[in-house]
Amino acid sequence: MKTMINVALTVLLIGMIGVVITFNAFGKEDYNEEKVIHNDQIENIQIETDSTDIIFIPTTGKKITLQLKGKLSKKIKNVYKLEVEERENELNVIVDRKNKFTFGNMVDSIKLYVEVPQKLYETISLKTTSGDMKVEEIKGKEISLKANSGEINIQDGTAENSLNIKATSGDITMTDIQGKTLNIKANSGGIIAKNQAAIDSEFTTTSGDIELENITGNIEVTSSSGSSKIENEEVSGDIVAHATSGDVMVTYSKKPASLEVDFRGSSGEGVIDMDGFMYEEKAEDVIIGKIGDGVNKIRVRTSSGDFYLGN
What we know:
Shape: elongated
Order of helices and strands: HEEEEEEEEEEEEEEEEEEEEEEE
Structural class: mainly beta
Oligomer: single chain
Largest sheet: 23 strands, mixed
Strand content: over 45%
Radius of gyration: 26 Å
Number of strands: 23
Helix content: under 10%
């Protein structure tokens, strides 16, 4: 018995020594690679990263600055490569990671910081395979943000024509966004949007909740597995909502003067908590009616979920 204990202690000691040796071998140091673009004619920006976070922020200057920085093990400091291609009014940026199979403690918070002059761009496309994305004060006619495995956070953005955001596995958070048409999709994650103005906004989740607050314009929400919640001060457009498995809730701070409602649920209950609502048809799973002339419309379809409308 004593022999077994001694053997176990010896193995444990050897393991601890190995951890110490490994930690020292993979000791981290600061990594910083910077490239500056002195071309004020850039109108189209395309950025792709493998496993790197993207931080996209404005600058009052006239140059575009790209900084790839963080901490890396001394043994793999050349694993990342910042590739920049500039052609007339186009800028293409790729962050390539040569060795995809590195230990977790060898890499720490490598991020790509992108500083761009404040102006309206023709197109902006940001894509990361495995990393988060934070975007501030972005302005473009066509904007596309994609994260295969990571979260997307965008604040104070303007898309003159269209804004397309897609997160395959991660949440999407949006604040103070303006645009013509917005298409927001999260396959496995939720969507939170506040203070948004657009002609048409579409929000889709496969597995996750949708939370909208102070959204003006026409709204369409689709959720396969998750609830949808819309909180607006007043009616400013039509709402179409589809929920396979989840509730749909719509509330207004100010009572609507003109609103038409069409709710049908396969397995769910509809509730209208609003004075002055005139029912044309009322059942547990069907509600049709309106307030006033019914200029603005709410159409809700649920397979397994309830619907609530109130103020």
